Amino acid sequence: MEDRDVLIIGGGPAGYTAAIRVAQLGGKATVVEKDTMGGICVNHGCIPTATLARAVELLEMGKYGKEYGITYEDMKVDFRRMMSKKEAVVKTLVSGVKQMLEAYGVEVIEGTGRLISSSLMEVQLKDGTKKELKGRRIIISTGSRYPEAYFPGGVPKVINPIEGLRLNEIPKSMLIAGGGFIGTVLVTIFSKLGAEVSIVEESSRLLPQVDKEVGFILEKEFKDNGIQIYLNARVMKVESKREDGLNILIDVKGKEIKAGAQYVLMTEPREANIDGLGLREIGVELNEKKGILVNERMETSIPGIFAVGDVTMEHMWTTVAYFEGNTAAENAMGQNSKVDYRAIPFWTYSIPEISCVGMTEEETLAKGYKVRVGRFPFAGNGMAAVLGQRRGMVKIIKEERYGEVLGVHIIGPRAGDLIAEAALAMKMEGTPGEIARTFHVHPSLSEALWEAARSV
Amino acid sequence: MVIQIVAPKLGMSMSDVTVVEWKVKEGENVEKGTVVLVIETEKTEWNVEAGASGLLHILVQEGAKAKIGQVVGLIAETREEFEKLQKEILPPALEVGGKEVPLTEAAGRRPEAAEVATGDRERIRISPVARKMAEEQMIDITRIKGTGPDGRIVKEDIERAAEMQRKGATPPEEVTRALYQGRRVKQTIPIKGMRRVIAERMVSSLSHSAQLSFLGKFDATELMQFRKALLNREKVIGVSITYTEILVYAIARALKDHPDINVSMIESEIKVWEDINIGVAVALGKEGLLVPVVKQADKKSLIEISREVKSLVEKARGGKILPDEVTGGTFTVTSIGAVGVSDYQTPVINQPESAILGIGPIKDEPVVKNGQIVIASLMPYSLTIDHRVINGFGAEQFLASLKELVETPAVLLPKSVEKLG
User: Fold this and answer.
1) Which of A60, B18, B229, B368 is 20 to 30 Å apart from B152, CA to CA?
2) Cβ contact (<8 Å) for B128 and A431?
3) Architecture of domain B210-420
4) Residues B222, B230 contacting (CB under 8 angstroms)
């Protein structure tokens, strides 16, 4: 039997990154994928969501283009073309992943893998035949999924985000459960497309990971757009109505409120794809979240087997999955590598966009830090005026004594791109002083962070 | 007012110096005129005195190199000024000629890109937050091993070091050495400055030449009388002459007759030196050793030699000797002197010289003279030569001449007195 250095089950961001790293280090890597390369992120998550958000952003631009003397005659939404553009983007990226793996000489086998031991894997190929693969190390990167049914009995129009991205027509109304990074972008997409949207969030505000001041700006934006927001709330019960719709029972601070919508979209929960992997048989331990238990070297309880990405049920973001894949590959190839989870940036493609890295001001105070805060509104930024997108702000929080940047929160145009500089500053244990002393292109949106850093 | 401390130019060929030791810690008081800094060139150490009194702000850390004329530290007159300086994380201007500059020019202004790039403080890889923590908590970052990417010092490293400091322990580096290869370590002393130079040069000398030693004793009975006579006339002569100085004088004259000893092997050639420059080894406590050189000793009177040796020794002990004063020797004399217990040593040649003479303590011993056992004062000597360029025969001939001069100082005296006039 042919000997591989590293066998990888699952070709999502964590898995394909691991394969490339193994190849870069001179090893022979094989990826076993049962579906399409790219995983949830490329096929059903980040990429299709961002493409639809871009579509509604273009719709917005069409509206304020008038101010610049540009009027689009006959501007309308063609939902089918929007969806096919989304598919086209996904295809482009999937083939990009495939080409990259090919360029690195990574072997890709289409099939379903099952572990037999820490060095042996059985693959059921698409034609039904079985094949055994041998590798010195195994990396599990099978990802996560949305469970099939949320409510007893199952209601057809209760959907998950993946299903939400595959609708055939713009829904009339939708209730989105979960006001985090996924929920808020979906609210934006469907409301801008004309659906009547409401959102239910368990905590006291939307985007609890984002600083209050910044989150409130989006809440206000949502309210101004007619979006119903239920906070400290939970969806208790969903029933099909006789006509096209659902009766929904929401618990808001202990009070029961009745609502109705054509669809209920649940952004949570998710579960790890561990069924049929043979983990129990070979003794791979799970954590409390029913994900695979790993250490910071991404090693599981069985020597020689690593687990990365969503399947660990921790840090379930592509942003982090890349690093975990890289780390597991390096360790599988005999290096000593760890994931440093500090300063993970988050983003949601709402309008306006929101991004953040590090702690909120509230968190810093709760942890006993003495802090100073710098703010800068995009209303004062030249490029924002040029773009006609002056809503939003940058907030920077620094520790008072040594000046370490503890958190940066941005709401405004291209916030997802702007946060990179803040993440770098935090990773390097930088202070606003370093940002303030760095040249920033003028005019550019990046000057907003520079101004905020200068003000603290 | 903020006063700069600048790396001084001590010799023609110098381009940079190493900061060996700050005598005062960051933020502590310095007194005008006291030694604030020890710097080192390839050849020597130099004490830098404070140009003013105030609070010290260190810019170039111990162990780092500095260019000639570079500002290595600042002295702030007031606490306010000092705190302002500490807040400035930028290295100050290079090659600022003036001694006194107003605060705004010394530190308060915006830096030019080139200055930031050449700042020596950037040599230590450390995160901005870690640097600020270290500065405020007075932690010496040169002794911390970074655990960040590429060995960068990060916040955690400073926190650990600070914790150690609070517990009264030495930094982690020291702790890990507490047990070294099964042996318990009492103290770890970094080899730096003069000690390091000596270590390197001694090993280099022994590994690059073939050293052979000749041991014996001079009868110093008459020499003692001679010296006593000179001491009695100290008021007339103006100096109190030592045995070492007499030997420098005698060796210079012996070398004149034996140019084959006054040589160096340089690459594949033997250079016979025109000048006779005698180095005199000066011990500086346990720490160090310097060899100031009496240039053209054969052309100088005993008194001139005596004055020069005294002046050089004083400079060496005060850390004020210039590189040019410790280079260019062609022969070295090293004296254990009166404190010595041992008669002999096998001194290591001071490269690129080819011979060194060690002198032991003079002791009274029974000797046979004219068939009679008498008491004589004997001076032990040890001559080490480089056998690559000097043969045993040549060495013995040189020693015979030197013996005659030492044992019959009358031969020396007229020559010496001639120049007195």
Assistant:
1) B18
2) yes
3) 2-Layer Sandwich (3.30)
4) no
- The matching CATH number, chosen from 2.40.50.100, 3.30.559.10, 2.102.10.10, 3.40.50.300, for B2-123 is 2.40.50.100
The segments of chain A whose pLDDT lies below 50 read none
Here the tokens at position A237 are 């019960």
Distance CA A415, CA A397 (A): 17
Q: For all residues of chain B together, what is the average pLDDT? A: 81
3-class SS of residue B190 = coil
Q: Are residues A84 and A14 in the same domain?
A: yes
Q: Are A402 and B154 within 8 A, CB to CB? A: no
Query: Rounded CA gap, B152 and B137, in Å?
Result: 19
Q: Annotated catalytic, A442?
A: yes
Boundaries of every domain in chain B:
2-123, 210-420
Question: Which of B87, B109, B129 to probe the A interface (max A CBs under 10 A)?
Answer: B129
Please give the mean pLDDT across all residues of chain A: 95
Option in A401, A429, A434 nearest B130 (CB): A429
pLDDT exceeds 50 at position B99: no
B70-94: pLDDT as tens digits: 888 888 888 888 887 777 644 433 3
Question: Which residues on chain A are in Cβ contact (under 8 Å) with B130?
Answer: 429
Element (H, E) at A103: helix A79-103
* φ, ψ dihedrals at A334, nearest 5°: 90, 5
Exposure of A132 by Cβ count < 10 A (0-12 exposed, 13-18 middle, 19+ buried)? exposed
Rounded-to-integer distance, Cα A274 and Cα A290, Å = 9
Of A328, A342, A315, A340, the residue nearest A144 (C-alpha):
A315
**Letter for the amino acid at A178?**
G
**Nearest-neighbour CA in chain B from A115: distance (Å):** 35
Q: Do the Cβ atoms of A412 and A403 come closer than 8 Å? A: no
| Strand B355-359 to B331-335 pairing | parallel
d(CA B99, CA B119): 20
